[in-house]
């Protein structure tokens, strides 16, 4: 058995040990929490942008080529990180997008994520419509009203919501589709890297407080991944096409350090809630630095896309992707393959290293 396959199998065994209801491949069993609410961007969007006038959409093949339901709007060949976490939490189906959630479906959670969305309202506007973090939070407030109506009163709704997990993963586009686009946005002219990270965290914290005011108590903050290692960044800025772009990754880490501090701040000042941080940067960098350990062979190119190493833009409609998709970390110029997403999801749920999650992982958060 190859080393990568061994690691894959070991991770499945470890995950199954921690939760008898989970499976490495299928969604089944009773959920460990009653609901899972998701806020984010294209890394976890599962269809909200399908009905928006935008270039940031993926409701066409080859996106979803390996997903049982086809091209749902997920920016991958298959499952996203939150799909993997949904499985591990024991839900019997994936969390429905806000655009499609109806009736009592909202009781098990809603996915509000929108491709090209950022913490700042203007982020991603060059791509067209998108739902910013603030807009996603407003949609959650609307959902709370629906939950109150379904359960009959505010107290019942609050008791239900406080046991749910709230996943927040935004900030990537505030760099990719804002700060590092100086010809379109003025943020890099107005702010130093440190100042920009500060202003992002201030806005981020403001939205988190709204979620807390509307009942959220179990929070998962997903840090920004190493954007400077994406095929797009390599194609645009790396001289050799494989060395990660330090300037971009350094800025991302400035944000992540402040996000960890925000976790500490909220855990100290909001004792009725629990906040954790997932080190997406470190987990994903581990895949890039030790690809063979996890069964990957290609780290600097997308499985589909256009331009240098498929890194200039995302997949074109009906483009033929690579056949050996499990060998690739990146699906297109920006987004991971299902194979990479599953590993990141597993390590977010049950930390394989002490640096994967702080101060606890999602598995332990669900038990609280």
Describe the overall structure:
The protein is of the alpha/beta class and 368 residues long. It has one domain (3-367): SGNH hydrolase (Rossmann fold, 3-Layer(aba) Sandwich). Helix content is 39%, strand content 8%. The chain is built from twelve helices and seven strands. It has helices at 3-18, 81-88, 133-151, 154-161, 172-179, 187-190, 193-213, 231-237, 246-269, 280-289, 338-349, 362-367, and strands at residues 36-40, 165-169, 218-222, 274-278, 298-302, 328-330, 357-358. The strands form two sheets. A five-stranded mixed beta sheet has the order 1-2-3-4-7. The longest helix has 24 residues, at 246-269. Mean pLDDT is 93; it is low at 1-10 and 13-27.
Q: What is the CATH architecture assignment? A: 3-Layer(aba) Sandwich
* Helicity range: 25-40%
Question: Overall pLDDT, averaged?
Answer: 93
**What integer value in Å does the Rg equal?**
19 Å
- Output the CATH class name: Alpha Beta
Q: What general outline do the C-alpha atoms trace? A: globular
CATH topology label: Rossmann fold
Number of domains: 1
Order of helices and strands: HEHHHEHHHEHHEHEEHEH
CATH superfamily, please?
SGNH hydrolase
Give the termini distance in whole angstroms: 38 Å
| Strand arrangement across the biggest beta sheet | 1-2-3-4-7
Total E-strand runs:
7
The secondary-structure class comes to alpha/beta
Number of helices: 12
Outline the biggest β-sheet.
5 strands, mixed
Uncertain parts: 1-10, 13-27
In percent, how much strand structure appears in the residues?
A: 5-15%
